[in-house]
């Protein structure tokens, strides 16, 4: 007999936290599920841990594959999943014992395509705990008209962005029947956001619960492992194009300027990060020059509504396509900020 829910956990280099994650899933009050652990070529002891749990509990399946990234691992899990509903958990997080009992209850009661809960952010670096907001109405049932007229516009305005993560949700399996509705293995940033936004344009019913049932951890090793991405501008361009597509699809002309302003803001912020990256000066100049000479970037930066005088200078430098001055200007700003902070601390 097939399980009601398939829970998919991509696993890579998390042996310190993996057992806690798996234990929280096996401790669920709802028991009719299969747990699919996708060992994505992890170099540590994760593969052994996955096999040990699979031997102990018949609901656990341990799958070992070559490293292909989190999207590839999730897609492998989708291919194997037998459940009527699918959930995703990150292997360094854990969940409330009632999470899937709560989500499946609403899924069946309202015949929903997607069920969403807030998640609790446990910041171990700052020693803080907070709860994400997902929608104004804490518990409600939403049809595709509300999604079209309220939720998608809100997301385009960068509100309720936690709607776009995949781990605080339960999905009807049919959401993934179209092969296009999978995680893009070529995207290494924001891949879950893109998929969820795509699904929001297709589903008929969405249910929110106000219970924070997922524990998302911010740890020191997470912040240390953040990599500088040389191709981030490609993602920024892609997100802008998708935002424009949504504005055109739903006739959201009033939101178009916000999409373009957000695009230039993200691009200039990325350009600043290029300056402070470990890349060689020659490589920095090349990346900045490529961005500044991009026709689309030049077209839209001319209308950028600068949030400060500093950004007005950056805008002028970008319009003039002077990557060397950009580097000098950004480094000077950083040195001045550092000096002022030292003076203030005295």
From TrEMBL:
Top-level lineage group: Bacteria
Glycosyltransferase 2-like domain sequence ranges: 6-144
MF annotations from Gene Ontology: glycosyltransferase activity
Key words, A-Z: Glycosyltransferase, Transferase
Database matches in InterPro entries: Glyco_trans_2-like, Nucleotide-diphossugar_trans
Pfam families named among the record's database cross-references: Glycos_transf_2 (PF00535)
Keyword Nucleus recorded: no
Family assignment from sequence similarity: Belongs to the glycosyltransferase 2 family.
Protein name (database record): Glycosyltransferase 2-like domain-containing protein
Originating organism: Paenibacillus pectinilyticus
């Amino acid at each position: 007999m097939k399980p009601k829910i398939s829970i998919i956990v991509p696993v890579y280099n998390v042996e310190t936290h993996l057992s806690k994650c798996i234990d929280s899933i096996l401790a669920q009050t709802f028991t009719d599920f299969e747990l699919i652990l996708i060992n994505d070529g992890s170099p540590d002891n994760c593969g052994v841990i996955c096999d040990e749990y699979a031997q102990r509990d018949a609901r656990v399946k341990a799958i070992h594959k070559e490293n292909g990234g989190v999207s590839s691992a999730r897609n492998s899990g989708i291919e194997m999943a037998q459940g009527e509903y699918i959930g995703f958990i990150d292997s360094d997080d854990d969940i409330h014992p009632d999470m899937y009992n709560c989500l499946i209850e609403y899924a069946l009661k309202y015949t929903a395509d997607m069920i969403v809960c807030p998640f609790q952010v446990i910041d171990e670096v700052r020693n803080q705990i907070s709860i994400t907001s997902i929608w104004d109405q804490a518990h409600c049932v939403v049809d595709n008209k509300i999604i079209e007229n309220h939720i998608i516009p809100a997301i385009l305005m960068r509100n309720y962005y936690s709607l776009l993560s995949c781990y605080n949700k339960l999905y009807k399996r049919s959401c993934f029947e179209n092969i296009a509705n999978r995680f893009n293995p070529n995207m290494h940033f924001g891949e879950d956001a893109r998929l969820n936004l795509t699904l929001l344009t297709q589903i008929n019913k969405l249910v929110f619960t106000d219970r924070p049932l997922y524990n998302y951890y911010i740890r020191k090793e997470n912040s240390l492992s953040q990599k500088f991405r040389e191709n981030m501008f490609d993602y920024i361009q892609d997100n802008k194009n998708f935002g424009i597509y949504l504005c055109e699809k739903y006739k959201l002309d009033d939101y178009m300027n916000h999409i373009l302003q957000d695009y230039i803001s993200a691009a200039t912020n990325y350009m600043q990060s290029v300056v402070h990256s470990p890349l060689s000066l020659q490589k920095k100049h090349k990346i900045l020059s490529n961005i500044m000479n991009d026709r689309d970037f030049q077209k839209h930066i001319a209308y950028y509504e600068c949030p400060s005088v500093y950004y007005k200078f950056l805008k002028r430098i970008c319009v003039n396509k002077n990557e060397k001055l950009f580097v000098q200007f950004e480094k000077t700003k950083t040195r001045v900020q550092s000096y002022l902070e030292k003076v203030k601390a005295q």
